[in-house]
């Protein structure tokens, strides 16, 4: 089915300029014709993008715009950028100046989308610890965008999505030792319900099937290997079912991700970060998208990080960035059409 398109170009924040974000923004633009991407503009630095493109051997024009509405006309011939100023381009060597640019770009891109001047937000990769040095006070971009939208951090639900799998971690950027105490039936139910609602609204899945993972080996083995599965996760699944949501579990996590199992659900609800992200990064690393559910705006990001070690070497693959731009456009179009 052809979706109506978002009326506004998408805003792509540049990410840390020492990482792979700038070169992948250029690479995505270079692929935009063959990949049929919606028009987008970068929020960041024209000079950094020009240097990143040159270093990657991409022959493209970067054109500064002063407002998002100028992007669509420029996009077929050049990469539009809302220029926040110059910064050093030293791939692989992050510094505070670059982190400040990344934070300014994230802030401005979020503002433009919130104000309806851009159709959706695609965030380039940042290093959270580097941004923390310049005043970033959030566990990640998910929580930053949630705060900017006036949404409680816990109600902004991270989902990683690729061609093989969708996963939602109930707890995210916390130490593993804290996970059991952070899991409650209410929290699992609330975040799972937000995911189910978003799969209907933004992904066009009319009755999403949720597979809820256990926490412990063999989902607790009748309490012999942990109590949380029966005491916390099972009541959450029952509560979801009583709301008419197609949820089942707790399921042993070790057997949830093989191909036949994956065919039985639309999203795996996982209890902690690596339970969710290991399978998707193993299966779909090059096309994996991190999408924030439950926001008044659409926000996506490539599933990978700054990859400082390979920045500037032309070996960073653009697939996840291309997929993040495409997914943002599709979700925005669904909302626009709705
Ligand atoms: N969307 C975001 O803003 C994300 C940010 N991060 C941040 O990135 C930083 C680095 O995190 P890491 O755990 O090292 O993950 P990473 O994703 O940056 O790198 C992990 C491995 O994958 C490779 N890799 C990453 N992207 C690639 C690409 N496009 N093509 C080919 N190979 C690629 C890297 O070279 C490295 O070997 C951390 O500070 C983390 O917080 C991590 C994940 C997502
Ligand atoms: N592991 C996912 C990740 O680090 C991305 O987090 P966020 O910055 O999108 O919140």
Plain-language structure description:
The chain has 338 residues and is an alpha/beta fold. A twelve-stranded mixed sheet has the order 3-4-2-1-5-12-11-6-7-10-8-9, sandwiched between helices. It folds into two domains: 1-152 and 296-338, Isopropylmalate Dehydrogenase (3-Layer(aba) Sandwich); 157-294, Isopropylmalate Dehydrogenase. It has helices at residues 21-30, 46-56, 71-74, 96-114, 128-132, 141-148, 179-182, 185-201, 228-242, 259-262, 273-284, 319-337, and strands at residues 10-13, 40-44, 62-65, 79-83, 121-123, 157-161, 166-169, 209-213, 246-251, 267-270, 289-293, 299-302. It contains twelve helices and twelve strands. Helix 9 (228-242) links the parallel strand 8 (209-213) and strand 9 (246-251). The chain is globular. It binds 1,4-dihydronicotinamide adenine dinucleotide (NAI) and the ligand NCC(=O)COP(=O)(O)O. The ligand NCC(=O)COP(=O)(O)O is lined by residues 140-142, 277, 290, 301.
């Amino acid at each position: 089915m052809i979706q109506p398109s978002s009326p506004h170009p998408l805003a792509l924040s540049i990410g840390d300029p020492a990482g792979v974000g700038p070169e992948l923004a250029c690479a995505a633009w270079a692929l935009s014709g063959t990949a049929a991407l919606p028009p987008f503009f970068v929020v960041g630095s024209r000079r950094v993008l020009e240097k990143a493109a040159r270093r990657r051997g991409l022959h493209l024009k970067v054109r500064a715009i002063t407002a998002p509405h100028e992007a669509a006309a420029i996009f077929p011939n050049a990469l539009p950028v809302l220029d926040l100023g110059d910064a050093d381009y030293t791939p692989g060597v992050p510094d505070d100046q670059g982190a400040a640019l990344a934070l300014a770009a994230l802030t401005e891109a979020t503002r433009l989308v919130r104000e309806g001047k851009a159709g959706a937000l695609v965030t380039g990769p940042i290093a959270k610890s580097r941004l923390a040095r310049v005043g970033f006070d959030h566990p990640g971009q998910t929580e930053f965008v949630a705060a900017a939208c006036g949404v409680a951090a816990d109600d902004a639900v991270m989902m990683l999505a690729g061609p093989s799998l969708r996963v939602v971690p109930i707890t995210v950027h916390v130490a593993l030792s804290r996970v059991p105490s952070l899991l409650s039936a209410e929290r699992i139910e609330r975040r799972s319900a937000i995911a189910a609602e978003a799969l209907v609204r933004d992904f066009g899945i009319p009755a999403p099937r949720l597979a809820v993972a256990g926490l412990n080996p063999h989902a607790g083995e009748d309490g012999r290997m942990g109590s949380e599965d029966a005491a916390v996760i099972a009541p959450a699944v029952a509560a979801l079912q009583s709301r008419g949501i197609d949820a089942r579990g707790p399921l042993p996590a070790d057997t949830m991700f093989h191909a036949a199992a994956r065919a039985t659900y639309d999203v795996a609800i996982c209890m902690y970060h690596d339970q969710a992200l290991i399978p998707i990064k193993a299966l779909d690393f090059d096309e994996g998208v991190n999408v924030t559910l439950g926001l008044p705006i659409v926000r996506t990001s490539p599933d990978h990080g700054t990859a400082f070690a390979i920045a500037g070497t032309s070996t960073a693959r653009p697939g996840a960035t291309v997929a993040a731009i495409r997914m943002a456009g599709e979700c925005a179009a669904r909302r626009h059409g709705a």
